[in-house]
Amino acid sequence: xxxxxxxxxxxxxxxxxxxxxxxxxxxxxxxxxxxxxxxxxxxxxxxxxxxxxxxxxxxxxxxxxxxxxxxxxxxxxxxxxxxxxxxxxxxxxxxx
Length: 96
What we know:
Blueprint lengths: L2 H10 L1 H18 L2 H21 L2 H30 L10
Helix pairs in contact: 1-2, 2-3, 3-4
């Protein structure tokens, strides 16, 4: 199902859209490595909560975008800290 088909389904039958969305999410989680599935379900629970609280798709998109940016910044800061602790990364070499 492509974007336009999903959009049309959302506009014509929101309940069917939500059922299809849940099925696709569950399929993606089931295909993930078993050790990641619980964390993915927890994350999806948070995402679904934000969507429900948002009231409209644009607000939901903005909130989810903010969540992503926050996580990316946290990862970037952790990487910067690691590189600082290691010193000049140009002097590092990969040992096989």
